[in-house]
Amino acid sequence: MSIKSPIWLTAAIGLLAIVSASFGQEEQWLQYQSSRDASSVLKDISAYYLELISERPEGAALPDFKEDNPFFYKWSSPMTQNGYLLIASDSTEKGGARDLLYIDSNGDGNLKDEPAIQAYQAERQHSYFGPVKVTFEGKDGPITYHLNFRLCNHNKRPLMVSSAGWYEGTITVGEAKKHCVLIDYDVNGTFNDKSIKSFNKCDRIRVGEEGTSNTRFVGNYIEIDGALYRLEVARDGAYIKIAKAQDVVFGNIRLPETISEFAAGGENGLFIFKPERGAGRLPVGKYCVEHWNIERKDEEGNNWKLEGRLFGSAGVFDVNAEKEAELSIGEPAISSLEVADEGGGNYYISQNLAGRLGERIELTCNGDRPPAPKLHIKSEDGEYDRTFAFAYG
Prior knowledge:
Elements: E1 7-8, E2 15-17, E3 28-29, E4 31-34, H1 38-42, E5 47-50, E6 71-76, E7 84-90, E8 100-103, E9 117-118, E10 121-122, E11 126-138, E12 141-152, E13 159-163, E14 165-173, E15 176-183, E16 204-208, E17 215-217, E18 221-224, E19 227-233, E20 239-244, E21 248-254, E22 261-266, E23 269-273, E24 279-283, E25 285-297, E26 303-309, E27 316-319, E28 323-326, E29 334-343, E30 346-354, E31 360-365, E32 374-378, E33 385-389
Parallel strand pairs: 21-28
Antiparallel strand pairs: 1-28, 2-21, 3-20, 4-14, 5-13, 6-7, 7-8, 8-9, 10-11, 11-12, 12-13, 14-15, 15-16, 16-17, 18-19, 19-20, 21-24, 22-23, 22-25, 25-26, 25-27, 26-31, 29-30, 32-33
């Protein structure tokens, strides 16, 4: 089932909300930080694999490699002149672990003038590098950025990259002091990326007490302490602008009344709220469902929760002031069983829970996963009769 077509609102609903003051406010500057343990420090950080380039890059000046077959990669970034930085891996000793990395840190397209970066940890399967410094040319001078790498020394030799740098500091929101953290979630060197196509392409921001895990998407708006603010983030992450939103046009959405929590994101940011009798509202724009929750207690007082995530394009919907958007999400949760014949009399069997739009559903009890379900298989003649226990992957 897909998201239903919107229906017309009564005159009393589609509204223009005046939420206060103008957006003309000063830049609030943040401090740049870097660490090889950025993923542990920030928690909410992503990584992705750079695929191995099959041929040597033409026209690039290269160092004298120890290996006859060095590995080459490209890290994409709009902050660079060519749109990417060239990377190569090598070994301290020929035939040994790939424990050296070269990166075009100044973006001139060459590696010959770059020093070899030694892995801080080299194992049989992986080599780890970072934080590796690169420099972008900005309007006001050079911009520093850092990356962490993990090189796989097997299969197709992919190189995993994650951001090692972020911005944080104290900002003023209204009359209050707040701690702000900016995260380059999509690992491309910029901190102001917005997206409706993929949440992985949205950068992240936290505003609140220091150490808070209240992470939101970088977007046009951000909710802080129940108030809506307009948000502007510098491309390089050095500062933000934030002010109470004014003249924001809202539209209404209609959800099943069983939904206890709902979240949707897009270029306007990420909004999380608890619907009242299935009703909610969002600033006008295009969104994708980020998650929904349904919670109930059983006769023994245990709190059971269904949570739906990973919607893809099926979760995209529009919010406007004239029509109410009705979303067909939530129950029923659909259980499916998949069986794959691996040959030799062996079968791989998996059980999954999915929602109406194909989203992945997770079931918890008092915050923990309940025991995995069991599978009973019995042949027609009763000769084969066994019960198997599933295990969480």
